[in-house]
Amino acid sequence: MTLLERLKIETRQAHDRIETAIDLDRRIASREAYRDLLIRFYGFHKAWESEAAERAPDRAFFDSRRKTDLLARDLEALGLKSGDIIRLPQCRPLMPLPAPEAVLGSMYVVEGSTLGGAIIARQVEHRLGFTADTGCAYFRSYGRHVAAMWKSFGAMLQEASSPEADDLIVGAAQDTFTVMHDWLCETP
């Protein structure tokens, strides 16, 4: 079994839990609910990117996948001022990221949510009329390159795979799902 297969199997329950709990239909039913969802995503990504960047195995690779600026752009399109965005609450506590392998495990969750983001973007565009330029840049983050970005992440993950690293990678992915669930589904 490859590391990607193991991650998919061992995080399935956590993935399903967050997918059910987030109640996407409610979160994209109105402009205000959608803005609140993006605020929660911003709080997660702002804290996570800051923490994970310090230990990322390949900083340029990591930096090319940051989402905070896209979220800030969306929030500005939805009426928030940049000063207000900077002061938004950030996700605490984060999951432990003691090593580059843990960052990769955490990135599995974040990059996987980008795949799902393409589907969410279509729903947001249909229901609310937002495009990548008017409030849906985060969910459209890689545009037509989403499959290629996932494939390149999978290749990096496989390169890092070893009997010693795989448990740390899977554990970090599970911890990330838990933290993300608690943060996104919490009522602010």
TrEMBL record:
What protein name is recorded for this chain?
Biliverdin-producing heme oxygenase
